[in-house]
Specification:
In chain A, helix 3 packs antiparallel against helix 4, helix 8 crosses helix 11 and helix 14 runs antiparallel to helix 19. With about 475 residues, chain A is an all-alpha fold. Chain A contains 20 helices and 2 strands. Chain A has one domain. In chain A, about 80% of the residues lie in helices and about 0% in strands. The mean pLDDT of chain A is about 80. Chain B has a domain of about 200 residues. Chain B has 18 helices and 2 strands. Chain B has a two-stranded antiparallel sheet with strand order 1-2. Chain C has 4 domains: about 120 residues; about 140 residues; about 170 residues, no CATH class; about 70 residues, no CATH class. The longest helix of chain C has about 50 residues. The N and C termini of chain C lie far apart (about 105 Å). Classes of the chains: A mainly alpha (about 475), B mainly alpha (about 475), C mainly alpha (about 550). Chains in contact: A-B, A-C, B-C. The interface between A and C is medium-sized, with 32 and 24 residues.
Chain lengths: ~475, ~475, ~550
């Protein structure tokens, strides 16, 4: 019991942190203490998670593996980065960060559980909690009228998704008699052609599309990003989707694998739609956050297109892509934190005009991160893109490959608009001085990118070994 | 020697770091760039010496295991062809950097991007496998975009978009080709053997369409030539102009490497189309060139015509003409860069002296003499090795396709006459204003260009005279 | 031996190129002259001794074709080199004597380098050396002209001709797979378009010679200094073209139209030069016309002799050079006044000088008559008689009008121009040397002298000086306008292509189409993404349909 409790300590720490942050009494202007506390809690949780990742905790409904560790590392890493960057925003804006940090921990906790869950009930619960966390964070950050509408759309959509998830769980409980993944898997294996099972599986999948921001469930993502406060934007770009992806992949491997043939076309359609919507949407934007929101949709599409078979190779390629994407996105978000005017963080493209003249290093790195996101060599994004495209080529999906490259071109056009604003336009306004922390974060990010590009085996081969162990 | 290749690749990166660390609004970065280029030239000369000493013609290699599980080893090598091109490119960049006006020498971003481009093109020209080749081929898109966008005075944004899109399309379609070849080769392939990768007919067709499209998108062949011309039209910055005009070289080099050994059946179908388009564009470019009234657009047309000549030589002639192409391209790169710089200097002198562009050289005798020399080299007179090598190449073209040969020679004659005519106009005193005070080039600049003149002139006697053996 | 001469010439040329002060320049120019004169003597000695030798080294190699640099010394090459060598020596001497160049030594050096290039051209045995030497000659011609405005047309035409010759050489090399000039004969068997290649090459030669239709290049030279015109027309492109005519003679013969084309061009050039020589008011233009007439005759005679060089050709060149130098003296004594209308009645002020010059002209005419009489035969009699008549008429008109014509004096004329003893002595000696072999010439020589003097005194063409006052005729530049209009057409085509293909098609149609498609696409996209709750419901419905379709298409019942 005690041993199980110890192994559950990472989650406990997160839970305690959530309670303290969200329900404790706090004084105003205590951002520094709040973030310091959050950082300590997150780090301790992460360390313990790494140590006990595969130990059986008291929560028997979840089981950690190397695979879960990979996703959890991504989640924790993103969380740390987010905390580091957000502190600057909250301090500058003199805003309370407790709810924000609490939601962050909520996401971390339920995201981790979602990835390691072995029971559909827990999965449904975690997914619903993730959506709730997202909604709270959205609601907390809303200041504008149009954002309110967006959060309302999010609420309706998430309620609908929660209903779908619950419905699926109920149907499967009635049909199979258990919500355990192994039992469900066996049941799916035996009754593949049962339309009720297909419906239940579809009801499970749709909410995950919503969580990961895939088209056509992307409305909430793109429309809410426009004037959202920067830390929340970063939260959605880096964390929310990552947790969703972990759960979605795990669910497909552990439960839905027997129905893979039925969902083949669906996944491809959704992936291609996401890629197209993301690319075209990014082109038409004047709001830099909206552009990156669409880029997130586009990238989600590529990830789905890559992982849709859920084989070792597919997951390996998908993970490679996701990692480099997150790294580049992380860099871009850092750069967005570094570019502000009179204390205000910028979001319209016109506001970034001539930024390179005043903030040359940040602008240069932003361009590098964007081109990495586009998958152009010699940046690390190429490695991810290569993994993804190579997988398509290996399976003779040449038309999809060509479609993907056409969409890359469209995304390139979108990035060109940002480059143009940063570099080719004359500066009309001034930019605030960025603190050394931003530069440090950018430098760290760049070094990481460089290391990955030079020594890619850590990203591809080691992860592959992990995946092979798990999938065997 | 393999280490020298690595050094060749590392020096520009180090140069980038030093440039970044240099003081703002100071010329330190400028000297860093000069030193970096000079160092790489020294390394290239050493490599050339080593390669020339190999009587069996073997090249120097350096390999790096990049992705073992995917069977991808990045391999770098240098043979005479790539080293000569590297030397030519470095010389062109050096000339471009020397050509910077005092106020332009303080642009750190310009210098940094120049070095970054230099690193890319070094990697590109030394790449021996298709992955490293692709990596550097695509990597050049960024510095080109930034340089042209920041320092190119591009008046229409749409032109910049189209130009960038073309470069990106080139990179992406090459990626398709590389991926398909990788799929069928079950791993990375050496550039020398890409034509031998066994593929089903449809895949081979797709691959070679992609390869041709990728490289042609970098060459000023119709309909791509317009965007190159539109981009070059506004550039008044020597290294930027030179770099923008070096891009067709990457397409040519691509053809040289992919087409080198044997042209697969699937690619043979493109030969007549490429020949027709090539010759037609040459004539087209030459006619447009002579319709312009300034030297720089004429020079652009001239370079377009010559790039297309080299393209035709690469795709139509067999590999035994490789050396001739290399020698000729080497001179062409240097001459093109020199003329660009000299013309931009004279244009600048016009702007400062408030005088007519035509006739300016009459007031700048030192510049005029050097300018005339380069024009004479450019038109193919026997004062550099370009003359003999062009003779061999054009002769071979006549042998293979008489009509194409006639078209090529007509275009060359037209554009060469256009360029020479412009030289006369620039030297002609009749059209210049009366009270003109124009400063001629300095003794340092003159000495630099005299060294370049010497380099070219001695090549007439021995194209590799600078290789000490 | 010729190789040795080339080396010496190169050294002398380099010596002359040294930049020195004004005083030292005088000495240096003399040293240069002395050196070249002694080199010439050595050459002459070797020629007389018939020393044969081949200097050769491997220059380059490519595709199994060895490119050798060769200087072959044999009696034929000596014979070819001789006239240009002697003319160069005389040009260097005149440069020293007339003292007109600011840097005489440098100018002499250019002449010497030009001679070196000509020798390389003459002795070449392969295309590359031939074309290289030809190009070098043309480059050096630019140094001789030294006036960008004046040499524009000349250079452009020459360059075009050079490019054509380059192409022709490349075509031959492509077909016969050899750089050897002797292999041109093989081209006949493998030629793809023999007439085209042959006539194209021949046209290039005519352009270099400044023949009819291409005369604007040489006529444009009238604005440069007299001695430069003289040296250019003797030592540069026309002479180089003559050598090419010899070297490529096997190529011309391939075409059946060759004889007809060549004859037509020679006659047309002769007639044009005659007409222009009569009506031109510009003295230098008249001299250029005389030269054209001479080169037309030379080409015609060469054709008649089957493109084989005989010593009489060399003699004719030297005689012509002496004649033009005599005209230069007249021009010099007239204070370099170039308009015929202002040169008339010169006899009033410079009687002695003019009389001495006239004597030289008559002697030269006698020598030339002798040379032509030696060459006279049934094949070339039409040319010799016809061209000689035209030539004599033009010369008589020029001399007659200057010596005996009525016209206004040049107001600014100097009365104290020094008598050029040196030049006079030089020309007299040359005339003596030329007439040495004509001693047994008999009545033809004396008869021609009488006819010539008679023509001088009572030429019916004197009256044609009315043309000098016709401004329209004097400034008429028909061929210049013709070429300008061709260039204009090319420019127009270029501009139209640029506008139609590049601007209208690519920018206005393709690009605008692409832009409008993307804008419409984006508009539709935005409408779909309007921030409405109804859209969310629609999305879920779409998803449902998609899932249903997926299920059915995957075999689900």
């Amino acid at each position: 019991m005690i041993e199980g409790l110890i192994y559950f300590s990472p989650m406990l720490i997160l839970l305690i942190a959530v309670f303290i942050l969200m329900f404790g009494e706090h004084e105003e202007d205590e951002q520094y203490r709040c973030f310091r506390f959050s950082r300590i809690m997150l780090l301790s949780s992460f360390v313990l998670e790494v140590i006990f990742y595969n130990k059986p905790s008291i929560l028997t409904l979840s089981q950690g593996t190397r695979f879960t560790l990979v996703f959890e590392s991504l989640l924790y890493g993103s969380g740390l980065m987010l905390l580091y960057l957000s502190r600057k925003w909250f301090t500058a804006m003199h805003r309370q960060a407790y709810i924000f940090c609490g939601c962050l921990f909520l996401t971390l906790m339920f995201g981790s559980l979602l990835v390691s869950s072995t029971n559909l009930g827990l999965t449904v619960g975690c997914a619903v909690m993730l959506m709730s966390g997202n909604y709270i964070i959205l609601r907390d950050s809303n200041t504008q009228k149009d954002s309110n509408i967006s959060s309302r759309i999010y609420l309706i959509s998430s309620l609908f998704c929660a209903l779908l998830l619950t419905g699926a769980a109920v149907i499967l409980r009635l049909l199979c008699g258990s919500l355990d993944y192994e039992a469900l898997r066996m049941y799916f294996d035996l009754n593949q052609s049962d339309i009720r099972l297909f419906a239940a599986a579809a009801m499970l999948i749709v909410p995950f599309l919503f969580l990961t921001g895939l088209a056509p469930m992307h409305f909430w993502l793109t429309e809410t990003f426009g004037r959202m406060m920067l830390p929340v934007f970063v939260y959605f770009v880096l964390m929310s989707g990552t947790g969703g992806w972990g759960g979605f992949i795990h669910l497909n491997i552990a439960v839905l694998a027997p129905l893979a043939a039925y969902f083949k076309i669906f996944y491809v359609s959704v992936a291609l739609l996401s890629i197209g919507v993301g690319a075209v949407g990014a082109c038409g934007g004047q709001n830099i956050r909206k552009i990156f929101a669409y880029i997130a949709v586009y990238n989600a599409g590529i990830i789905l297109l890559t992982v849709r078979r859920f084989t070792v190779n597919a997951l390996n390629a998908g993970f490679g892509y996701m990692f480099t994407y997150l790294l580049a996105m992380c860099g871009i978000c850092t750069c967005l934190f570094g570019l502000k005017r009179k204390g205000e963080y910028l979001f319209m493209l016109s506001e970034f005009e001539g930024a390179s003249q005043k903030r040359p290093y940040i602008s240069a790195m932003m361009v590098i991160f964007m081109f990495s996101l586009l998958g152009l060599p010699p940046f690390s994004g190429f490695l991810g893109l290569f993994s993804a495209l190579n997988y398509q080529a290996l399976h003779h999906h040449f038309y999809q490959l060509i479609y993907l490259l056409i969409m890359m071109l469209v995304v390139g056009y979108a990035f060109l608009q940002i480059v143009r604003a940063l570099y080719f336009e004359e500066r009309k306004t001034t930019f605030d001085k960025a603190d050394s922390g931003i530069y440090t974060a950018i430098l760290l990010n760049a070094v990481l990118m460089l290391l990955i590009m030079i020594l890619p085996q850590y990203l591809t081969e080691d992860v592959r070994t992990m995946l092979e162990t798990v999938l065997q | 020697m393999a280490n020298l290749l690595l050094i060749l690749l590392i020096i520009p990166l180090l140069g980038c770091l030093f440039t970044m660390a240099a003081k703002k609004n100071d010329v330190n970065a400028f000297y860093v760039v000069l030193f970096t280029i000079a160092s790489n030239i020294a390394v290239v000369l050493r490599l050339l010496q080593a390669v020339a000493a190999n009587t069996d013609g073997t090249a120097e290699y350096y390999t790096y295991t990049w992705l073992k599980s995917l069977n991808i080893e990045l391999s770098f090598g240098a043979d005479l062809f790539s080293l000569l091109l590297l030397f030519g490119v470095y010389m062109a960049l050096l000339i471009g950097v020397v050509g910077l006006l005092p106020q332009q020498r303080k642009h750190k971003s310009l210098l940094l991007l120049t070095l970054y481009f230099m690193w890319n093109i070094t990697g590109f020209l030394t790449a021996r496998d298709m992955f490293s080749f692709y990596i550097f081929f695509a990597a050049m898109v960024l510095p080109l975009l930034m340089l042209v966008g920041m320092f190119g005075n591009v008046r229409k944004v749409s032109v910049l978009y189209v130009h960038f899109s073309l470069s990106l399309v080139g990179a992406l379609v090459l990626l398709i080709a590389v991926l398909v070849m990788y799929r069928f080769n079950h791993g990375n392939a050496e550039l020398l053997s890409v034509a031998l990768v066994a593929m089903p007919k449809y895949a081979a067709f797709v691959v070679w369409v992609c390869v041709c499209a990728a490289f042609l998108s970098r060459i000023p062949i119709w309909p791509f030539h317009h965007w190159f011309a539109a981009i070059s039209a506004g550039i008044k910055n020597p290294p930027v102009y030179i770099i923008a005009n070096l891009m067709p070289l990457t397409g040519l080099y691509g053809f040289m490497r992919f087409w080198q050994l044997t042209v697969p059946e699937s690619a043979e179908a493109f030969l007549p189309i490429m020949t027709i388009f090539g010759v037609a564009t040459m004539l087209f470019a030459a006619l447009i060139g002579i319709s312009h009234k300034d030297f720089l657009p004429k020079l652009f047309s001239y370079s377009a015509v010559y790039y297309l000549l080299f393209l035709l030589c690469i795709v139509l002639l067999d590999s035994q003409y490789e050396k001739n192409i290399a020698y000729s391209l080497f001179i062409f790169l240097i001459v093109n860069a020199s003329l660009t710089v000299l013309d931009l200097w004279s244009e600048n002198a016009c702007a400062e002296g408030h005088c007519d562009y035509r006739g300016i050289l009459a007031y700048m005798p030192k510049l005029s003499r050097i300018f005339a020399f380069f024009v004479l080299v450019a038109v193919g007179l026997p004062i550099s090795s370009m003359f003999w090598n062009n003779f061999v190449l054009i002769s071979a073209l006549f042998k293979i396709n008489f009509a194409a040969g006639i078209g090529v020679m007509t275009a060359i004659t037209l554009i060469c006459m256009g360029v020479t005519y412009e030289l006369f106009m620039m030297r002609s005193l009749k059209r210049i204003g009366v009270n003109v005070s124009v400063e001629d080039i300095s003794d340092r600049q003159r000495a630099f260009f005299m060294a370049v003149v010497l380099l070219l002139f001695l090549s007439f006697f021995d194209p590799l005279w600078f290789v000490l053996s | 031996m010729i190789a040795y001469t080339v080396l010496l010439l190169f050294i002398i040329g380099a010596l002359g190129s040294i930049r020195v002060g004004v005083k030292t320049d005088k000495i240096l120019s003399f040293v240069v002259f002395a050196s070249i004169f002694f080199t010439f003597l050595q050459f002459y000695q070797a020629m007389s001794d018939g020393v044969t030798h081949t200097f050769s080294f491997m220059w380059n190699t490519s595709q199994g074709q060895d490119l050798k640099f060769e200087i072959i010394s044999n009696s034929y090459n000596y014979m070819l080199v001789f006239p240009c060598f002697i003319v160069t020596v005389l040009a260097v001497l005149n440069n020293f004597l007339f003292r007109y160049e600011e840097r005489r030594a440098a100018y002499s050096a250019v002449l010497i380098f030009n001679l070196t290039a000509l020798i390389l051209l003459l002795t070449s045995n392969n295309f590359v050396q031939l074309i290289s030497a030809l190009f070098v000659t043309d480059i050096l011609a630019l140094f001789m002209i030294k006036d960008a405005q004046a040499c524009r047309r000349y250079s452009m035409l020459n360059m075009m001709a050079d490019m054509v010759l380059f192409s022709v050489s490349a075509i031959i090399n492509a077909r016969v797979d050899s750089l050897d000039l002797q292999q041109i004969q093989l081209y006949q068997q493998t030629a793809l378009y023999p007439d085209f290649t042959s006539l194209l090459g021949l046209t290039a030669i005519f352009a270099k010679l400044g023949f009819f239709m291409f005369q604007i290049g040489v006529i444009g030279l009238k604005n440069i200094r007299f001695h430069r015109i003289q040296n250019l027309l003797f030592l540069s492109s026309p002479f180089a073209a003559l050598i090419l005519l010899l070297k490529f003679n096997a190529l011309w013969r391939i075409s059946d139209y060759f004889t007809f084309y060549l004859d037509i061009m020679c006659v047309a050039t002769g007639l044009w030069a005659f007409v222009c020589g009569i009506y031109a008011n510009d003295f230098k233009a008249k001299m250029i016309c005389l030269m054209l007439l001479f080169w037309a005759l030379m080409v015609a005679l060469l054709r008649c002799y089957g493109f084989a060089w005989i010593p009489e050709f060399s003699q004719l060149i030297i005689e012509m050079y002496v004649l033009v130098t005599a005209f230069y003296l007249i021009y010099f004594y007239n204070n370099r006044c170039r308009m015929m209308t202002q040169m008339m009645q010169l006899r009033l002020t410079h009687k002695k000088r003019l009389a001495s010059t006239l004597g030289i002209i008559v002697l030269t005419e006698m020598a030339a008559t002798h040379t032509l009489s030696v060459m006279y035969n049934n094949i070339n009699r039409f040319y010799i008689i016809g061209f000689s008549a035209l030539f004599l008429l033009v010369v008589s008109v020029i001399i007659g009008q200057i010596y005996f014509g009525d016209g206004k004096r040049n107001v600014g004329i100097q009365h104290d121009i020094v008598f050029k003893w040196g030049v006079f002595a030089e020309l007299t000696a040359l005339c003596g040397w030329l007439l040495q072999s004509a001693a047994d010439g008999g009545y033809i020589i004396w008869g021609s002298a009488v006819v010539f003097i008679g023509l001088l005194i009572c030429s019916p063409l004197w009256k044609l000086q009315v043309f000098y006052k016709m401004e329209g005729l004097q400034h008429c530049d028909f061929w210049g306008s013709f070429y300008q209009s061709i260039v204009r057409v090319f420019r127009m085509v270029g501009r139209v292509l640029a506008v139609l293909v590049d601007f209208v098609f690519l920018e206005r149609i393709l690009l605008v189409f692409a832009q409008s498609v993307s804008i419409s696409g984006l508009r539709l996209f935005r409408r779909l993404h309007a921030n409405k709750i109804g859209g969310t419901v629609a999305v879920f419905m779409v998803l449902g349909v998609l899932l249903w379709y997926t299920y059915r298409s995957s075999g689900g019942q």
